[in-house]
Amino acid sequence: MLAFLIRWGITTIAVMAAALIIPGIRYESTGVLLGASLLLGIVNAFVRPVLLLLSLPFILLTMGLFIFVVNALLMLLVSSVVPGFVVDGFWSAFFGAIIVGFVSLVLSSFFRASDGRVRLITHHEGIKRADARVIK
Prior knowledge:
The chain has about 140 residues and is mainly α. Helices cover about 65% and strands about 5% of the residues.
């Protein structure tokens, strides 16, 4: 449950950052922001893998750049479902999805341990000093 709340909080902060940076993304209230980020997380967890599988030829043809288009389309989908969360057009969604992805990546790095579990990272207990010598 804590891992879910941490991921939801990270997505909320990322969507808020995208709304602050991109002029075409707006939300009316904090509740709308929380709802939009929750739905974006659900869509990314369940719909995005199917879309990525279906668009695999385009992803391979564009060397992975089509994934940005899929992310933008998912952001547009969320804006059409959540009242009060507005994404003006494709390009706002495109750049907003890039910002959401980047902010989520940076914030998630503080909560992801080397074993894949989600928790606050303060130090790595498993890092050991190498028993080696330098050859000149």
